[in-house]
Design brief:
The complex is a heterodimer of chains A (about 260) and B (about 90). Chain A is mainly α and about 260 residues long. Chain A is built from eight helices and no strands. Classes of the chains: A mainly alpha (about 260), B mainly alpha (about 90).
Chain lengths: ~260, ~90
């Protein structure tokens, strides 16, 4: 009875972090995908764009089922954790690096407005989709956008879900994020640039890196103090590292030279 | 056959971009962390300190290296054209 509370806390903590990580990652990728779908819909016709997006979502869901379920049932848990941890580490560190470079001003922020404008300009030529008949270009562009952005989400869902034996919960979190982003997209139409994408990316990067280090260690036999609660400690550590790195990188920005006209 | 070849190539491209991309040092970092996790099995508490530190060191090093390449026009890295180019009929 005395052990019930700590064990519950550990499971609740790891479950909460799992949901947040998948939801956040899915949100970021879906914002990018939605920009392309909206651009295809506006310039070529909504019917084909939505069909393309829906088809990609179905293919991604099938991938989760076909890859995730066998992973849980047939791969030894320790091997799975090392492989999953490695994937999460590569993905998480890459996201953090990009987020730090953007937050510190070394890299231009992801500009949904620019991507939207460029996509519309590119699709506007070459015939009118009409909005009523099927348009192959709108379908292909929407499918490609959702599928490419969604593949990373599938990797995260399968990795985190399989390593914790909660594939269904991870898939639900990703689905919820897709619904929320689509809802926001419908309400705000082209105002997707308002979404604080870099902040979400930083948070998700921290979580993926923390999970990655944790699972690699677990799979190799490392016993983390506090078991799953150690993930919180790792999250705190990587938040500090990210803040420090952002401040350090800002200090390395070249000082702008003042231009005075005489 | 062409479709199969194109699919395999796209699959290979995806994994290359995903694992290597513009930050190949993270694959190296992951390899080092996995090796350390197995090597430090006699001092498991040490591993819980060393593994996050190694990940942080690689992140800082890679970010520092990335600032030079990021100084190039951002459009080069984030060009969405490849994502949205319509397929040839």
């Amino acid at each position: 009875m005395a052990l019930a509370w700590p064990l519950d806390t550990m499971h609740t903590t790891s479950t909460l972090i799992l949901i947040l990580a998948v939801f956040g990652a899915s949100s970021v990728e879906m914002v990018e995908a939605l920009t392309i779908v909206v651009a295809a819909g506006v310039s070529r016709g909504w019917r084909s764009a939505l069909e393309g997006a829906a088809t990609a979502v179905v293919v991604l869901a099938l991938l989760v089922g076909f890859i995730g379920v066998p992973l849980i049932h047939y791969v030894p848990i320790d091997t799975l954790r090392v492989v999953v941890g490695a994937l999460l580490l590569v993905l998480g560190l890459a996201w953090l690096r990009k987020a730090i470079l953007r937050a510190s001003g070394h890299k231009a922020p992801h500009d949904e407005d620019r991507i939207y404008a460029e996509t519309v300009a590119e699709l506007s030529g070459g015939g009118d989709g009409g909005g009523k008949s099927r348009d192959g270009v709108a379908f292909a562009v929407a499918f490609k956008g959702v599928f490419l952005e969604g593949t990373e989400v599938v990797l995260i869902v399968v990795s985190l879900g399989a390593s914790q034996g909660r594939l269904g919960l991870a898939a639900l979190s990703a689905g919820a994020a897709a619904v929320v982003v689509a809802g926001v997209g419908v309400l705000v139409a082209r105002q997707l640039s308002e979404v604080p994408e870099n902040t979400i990316k930083t948070v998700v990067g921290v979580m993926l890196t923390s999970f990655g280090v944790f699972w690699v260690g677990e799979g190799a036999g490392v016993r983390w103090p506090g078991s799953d609660l150690a993930i919180l400690g790792l999250v705190g550590f990587f938040v500090l590292v990210t803040l420090a790195a952002t401040a350090w990188m800002r200090s390395l920005l070249p000082v702008p030279t003042s231009v005075t006209s005489s | 056959m062409t479709v199969l070849r194109r699919s395999l190539r796209a699959f290979g491209h995806f994994w290359w971009d995903f694992l290597i991309g513009d930050s190949p040092e993270f694959v190296l970092a992951t390899g080092v962390i996995i090796a350390l996790a197995f090597l430090l099995d006699e001092g498991r508490l040490v591993a819980t300190i060393v593994l996050p530190l190694v990940a942080a060191a690689f992140l800082l090093g890679s970010t520092y290296r990335g600032r030079k390449r990021a100084a190039r026009p951002a459009a080069q890295e984030e060009a969405p054209a490849s994502r949205v180019s319509p397929p040839t009929p």
